[in-house]
Fold this protein.
Amino acid sequence: MLSLVYENPWTTVFLLIVASCCLNSIIGALRGQ
């Protein structure tokens, strides 16, 4: 996994974007209750 990140930095950016989207949806669902 680390070698993949070192070879392709865009995977890190993509994973961060996906993680932030997931967190936003989870927080939005919690606030919506």
